[in-house]
Amino acid sequence: MADVFISYCSKDRDVARLLANALVARGHSVWWDRDIVAGESFDQVIERELESARSVVVLWSRDSVASEWVKNEAASAAERGVLLPATCDDAKLPLEFRRRQAADLNDWDGDPSHEGFQSICRGIDRLLGAGVAPPRITTQKASPARRTRWYLVMAAIVAIIVFGIALLLVKGPGETPGISGELAALAAGDYSGEVIADSKGSSRSDIAVTVTKLGANKVRVTSPYARIGTVDIEVTRVGNQILNAGGDTPFIVDLDAEPPTLSLSPRNELSYRGVIRWRH
């Protein structure tokens, strides 16, 4: 169950990505159709996620108002009382949705202080019941199952670290011929994989992770899966592997794999492994 489902047409993909990343950075779990992995039934997955999402943001534009998919998703969200409309341009909304106030994202560039984005956030907070006091934390002995999960996470993290050290010892700091370019650009892309182990939960499949270039040697990792969230990482290179140059998040992109793979352990709390689906 995602906090937010984003409904949009393919021509508005860049706005949808920007919104997804901004909401993830705010701590929400977000689902949009880039999370569909190979082999899944497109319509069944969308229907399942749409019906379970706690809020649905519909991006209206001159293209999406002509999309039956978007209009059907908006109607479904309206029936459940979880619809949050937003406009991307000066499109005239379908008649049945004109009575609802829409957030204005026409000139939004990702700034979290933008009034249109803030309007969406307020709507999400309302639907998610923002302001409810968090549960009281009590100290208790960890259960055997929880200890087992923690051991699995630590074992996976140690494996990632040992692998990186081994690369340093075996290959040295030089680059392997045949693959060149800025490190961040080589690592950037959309990955699909699974959480192998989690210190605070169970393993999870079909998890999407996006690696975005911030600079020549810096990337941002984001995921609609809240336990991964957003992490900025300085990277270095050993052979054909791109590694974290420091910090508490082991990160390895193996360019020798086909397709390239990503091993990640955000804040040393869980272990993720995925393969690249799209390059940026």
Task: State the main characteristics.
280 residues, alpha/beta, Rossmann fold, 6 helices, elongated
Low-confidence stretches: 35-41, 130-143, 168-178
State the helicity in percent bands. Answer: 25-40%
Q: End-to-end distance, in Å?
A: 28 Å
Main sheet attributes: strand count, strand direction, barrel closure = 8 strands, antiparallel, barrel
Q: Helix count?
A: 6
Element pattern in H and E: EHEHEHEEHHHEEEEEEEE
Basic shape: elongated
The fraction of residues in strands falls at 25-35%
Beta-strand segment tally: 13
Write up this protein.
Helix 1 (13-25) links the parallel strand 1 and strand 2 (30-31). The relative contact order is 0.13. This protein has two domains: 4-128, Toll/interleukin-1 receptor homology (TIR) domain (Rossmann fold); 144-279, no CATH class. The strands form two sheets. An eight-stranded antiparallel β-barrel has the order 6-7-8-9-10-11-12-13. It has a five-stranded parallel beta sheet with strand order 2-1-3-4-5. Residues 35-41, 130-143 and 168-178 have low confidence and may be disordered. The chain has helices spanning 13-25, 42-52, 68-80, 115-128, 144-171, 183-187, and strands at residues 4-7, 30-31, 56-60, 83-87, 103-104, 189-198, 204-215, 218-222, 230-238, 241-244, 251-254, 261-264, 270-279. The longest helix has 28 residues, at 144-171. The chain has 280 residues and is an alpha/beta fold. The two termini are 28 Å apart. It contains six helices and 13 strands. Helices cover 30% and strands 27% of the residues.
